[in-house]
Amino acid sequence: MTAATTARSVSDALAEVEQWRAEEEARHQGEILDVDQEIKNLQSAIENLQHQLEALDRFRSDLGAKVRELAPQYVGRAYRSVYDVLATQVAWVAERETLVAVAEKTRRDALPDMLGRSEIGPVLEEFRQFKTTVEPTLKALPESYRSVIQRHHQGVTDRLRDHVAAVLTTPITIDADERSIDVIYAVDAPEGEPELLVLVLPVPETVHRNWTERGDGLSLWISARVVQAVYEAAASANFAKAQVVAGGHQGLLVIEVDLAGAGMSFVEQLDRHITEVLSQAPELGGARLKIVPRRLEIDHVMPPDDGTEIADAR
Amino acid sequence: MLDELEPVGLTEAARRIGTDPFEIVRLLVAAGAVPEGPLLIDAEIVDKLRGIGRIESPWWQDATIPKDSDPSRARVRAAVQMLLDKGRVGEERTRMDNVWRGLEEGDRRLLERAFTVFSEEGMVRISPSPIGPLLSIEPVAVEAAKKFAAGKLDSPGLRALLAEV
């Protein structure tokens, strides 16, 4: 039902309708304009949000890359920190080596006097006289005389040797604070089975390479005890193929053992033997060194191979 | 004067026997003779270690090196000949480092690598032991070893090894 009209004629009525149409159209057009503006505003807002989203995505990618880079950086830093510490400990060992060597020389130099003043003094004098006076003339004696004298001299020598050994095999003990140093080792087992054992010691690599010039000393004793532990572990684990190979890395002595065929039983035995041997070695205790074996991840012992820059650990 | 009465350190023991200090430790472990005290060894035990370790005097003092265009191959041929001459076949094994004892570092490494190659090729047998690897010529390869030592047989592995060097 249409609204009642006040027009007096058809023309007037139609004009009213036309006016209504125009007014309605104008009103709707106005609303359309408003809606269009709102749409534009929202689109602009969406565009801005999209930009923000893209920026956040990029930032998130950067953070993800940094997290992925952490792993090799961590390995590199750990490797660097291990070797920095060992480099410091090499100097500690060298310092103790000097003290022990001085104490040994002092004891050795004093040995003849000390024995001379002891109950074995007369035996020592007899030995000295034999060496200086009798031995040069032995060849001139008949065989029967010579053999008697040599037999007696052997008895004298044996007694003296026992006393000398009793003195020299008493560990030197130096007056110093106990220092703790590390012997680190790692087992490379990329597929679960041990393939390689690597031990790094806080002693110079020249300990093995130049052993003929260096001679015995604290650094060699530390190394020898580690080798002892390796071979004792091999014996306990029935791993006859164990072969210590000595080398160097970063100036430090490195000992490697090919573990093909060894199995985890060797590693378990090594854990036990290396702790026992290093804690019970009297010459190391006398040098006031507490040597702590530490098993690390292989990546912390072997140099990184991916070209990662090694950052200073500090 | 008291020096001759003193127990022997690792380096002196190694010098007397003709090996290195770490091998001395190995032999002490194998012999159950690691000192209870510091690492000083009675002179009598040092002599026993030589026997326990089957350490022989150097072989090369009067050795004959065959003529060969390649001096490295000549050295290896001579080493194989010495193994044959000493009867180191099958169960008659020798300590592997006896083969290169007394030689310079380069020849030591050459012979070690050469015999490793020969073991892969079946000419020699390398047997692990608590005193170190033991070496002998495989009985089935004696004729081949003789021919090789005489320069009448080639070893592909050795050829490849010498090409690297």
Give the helix/strand layout.
The complex is a heterodimer of chains A (314) and B (165).
Chain A: H1 10-116, H2 121-134, H3 143-168, E1 179-188, E2 196-204, H4 206-209, H5 211-214, H6 218-236, E3 244-249, E4 252-258, H7 263-280, H8 282-286, E5 289-295
Parallel strand pairs in A: 1-5
Antiparallel strand pairs in A: 1-2, 2-4, 3-4
Helix pairs in contact in A: 1-2, 1-3, 2-3, 6-7
Chain B: H1 10-17, H2 21-30, H3 43-52, H4 71-85, E1 94-95, H5 105-121, E2 124-127, E3 134-137, H6 142-149, H7 156-164
Helix pairs in contact in B: 1-2, 4-5, 4-6
Give a verbal description of the structure.
The complex is a heterodimer of chains A (314) and B (165). Chain A has 314 residues and is α+β, with helices and mostly antiparallel strands. Chain A has helices at 10-116, 121-134, 143-168, 206-209, 211-214, 218-236, 263-280, 282-286, and strands at residues 179-188, 196-204, 244-249, 252-258, 289-295. Helix content of chain A is 63%, strand content 12%. In chain A, strands 3-4-2-1-5 form a five-stranded mixed β-sheet. Chain B is mainly alpha-helical and 165 residues long. Helices cover 47% and strands 6% of the residues of chain B. Chain B has seven helices and three strands, in the order H-H-H-H-E-H-E-E-H-H. Chain B is elongated, with a radius of gyration of 18 Å. The model of chain B has no long low-confidence stretch (mean pLDDT 94). Chains A and B meet through helix 1, helix 2, helix 3, helix 5 and helix 6 of A and helix 1 and helix 2 of B.
